[in-house]
Amino acid sequence: MTKLEITEAVNLLLKKNEDIDEKVLAEKRSQTPAEKEEYRSNLSQIETYKLMEQTLAYKNADGTLISPIIQREVPRQKKQYSLIKCINDQLENRQQSEYARDVHVEGRNEFRRAGVSAAGSIIIPTPEQRANILAGTQYAGQEIVQEDKKAILPPLTDYLVLSKAGATFMTGLVGNVSIPSYAGTTVAWKTEVEAAADGGGGFTEVELAPKRLTAYILVSKLFLAQDGVGAERLLLENIASSVARKLEATILGHAAGSASVPQGMGYLIHQGRAEARAAAAPTYEDVVAMEAAVDVSNALAGNLAYITNGTGRGVLKAKVKVAEYPAYLCENNEVNGYPLLVTNSATASVGTTNNEGNLLVFGNWADLIIAQWGGYDITVDPYTAAATNQVKITINAYLDAKGLRGATTDDDYRYSFERINIE
Q1: Cα–Cα distance between 287 and 319 in angstroms, integer?
Q2: 10-49: pLDDT as tens digits
Q3: CB distance 126 to 172 below 8 Å
């Protein structure tokens, strides 16, 4: 067999295994014994073809052995995925490179496993999935091993203050996810012959469902003409940070929760609900009350921290705790002994009523679940901004966020978190 014939045979076997994978995923079942045997047989035949190809490397076109004098060991050139190159290939109607197609196939498979539709021409898997496609043996990913593994989109956690606070991130999800939350066990003293009461705590469930988060950036064609590492990293980081900023602004915002938007932690304050406590400026008593509310719900443990925005930190640093002592609510980026994290994604003042202000949130951030289905679905639009010589790049990601100790559908963060508005 020639090298071309071997390649075609290998591709045919890989296609057969891919068909089995797609059928199993579509029917949501495990492989049958017959399918397992066929799958293993195809992989075994591929290994045989690999050995045949290695043998051909030592022969000339006429079948004679290559002279040892001219035989050379050519090192494998490692490939690097480039989003800029993929965009330019699409703009100029060029075929994507083989290693780029492999990356996009893995991205589509990840979306398919999650049960989410991806319609873009460029599908990038989550960073946690990229190891599956960037290393391995020949015909299983070795062809796309890259020097710099950071050349795919960086994880959202690199950009979120919520990750610094200790929020729980879940990726690689399939369909809606229901997470149980346990209210705790009750234990009581009894007399020697008194019957024991049922001490089992109650279980509740928090359901997470994929919600589409979309953003776009405009990139000049002159920028896309650059092929340096710096330009590639700048584009990737702009895409990842735009998704992260919107996600964080939603979680720390005041939007009502719906089938398409996670509820913001400032929602109750924005609605003027009494238990949300709006205030012109927080007092030491307010801060202690927030901590006590979390403690009462048995959540005063784990990743405890305060979060506010830059204006809120300024208010806290200027607010005296107790008049008799020269101490302030915020000192050394701590509030009452707990870390204070700052992000301007936290709700800022948008009005003049008592229900508007700068959000201050306290709680156990491990109880905040941030979930992601699939990777990043990217669509390249060369027409909308063509008049300004720019390309519109639209990013779609599917995420959700909820607090594990939420009491009702309109109060997802009541037990794990307390919040107050400050001006």
Answers
A1: 12
A2: 888 888 888 888 888 888 788 888 888 888 888 888 888 8
A3: yes
